[in-house]
Write a structure and sequence with these properties.
The protein has 96 residues and is mainly α. 68% of the residues lie in helices and 8% in strands. A two-stranded parallel sheet has the order 1-2.
């Protein structure tokens, strides 16, 4: 059986680190430096929500991977959409 393509975990980790280490501190400093207001608070809440969603998505993907592997379906981690590995015939079978 052909491996099932899934995103590499590093994609989640990169986004999480960017948001947690760079975006949130800047938003925090903006609100602490006199830019209080609903808009800045809402921006921080939005980014915090994105962080939570990314963490959940990574956990869900890992759970799916465990299920696939328990069913004998190998997983292939992908770094980009340009990677090949699943041919047109396989895609046709998946879509049916």
């Amino acid at each position: 059986m052909d491996p099932l393509p899934v995103p590499s975990h590093i994609h989640y980790e990169l986004l999480l680190q960017l948001l947690e280490r760079q975006t949130m501190p800047v938003l925090q400093s903006l609100t602490e430096n006199g830019r209080q207001g609903a808009a800045w608070r809402q921006s921080r809440e939005c980014i915090h929500g994105a962080i939570i969603s990314l963490r959940k998505a990574l956990v869900l993907q890992k759970q799916c991977e465990e299920f696939f592997e328990s069913q004998g379906v190998p997983v292939s981690y992908r770094w980009s959409l340009n990677e090949t590995g699943v041919d047109e015939e396989t895609l046709g079978k998946i879509e049916d």
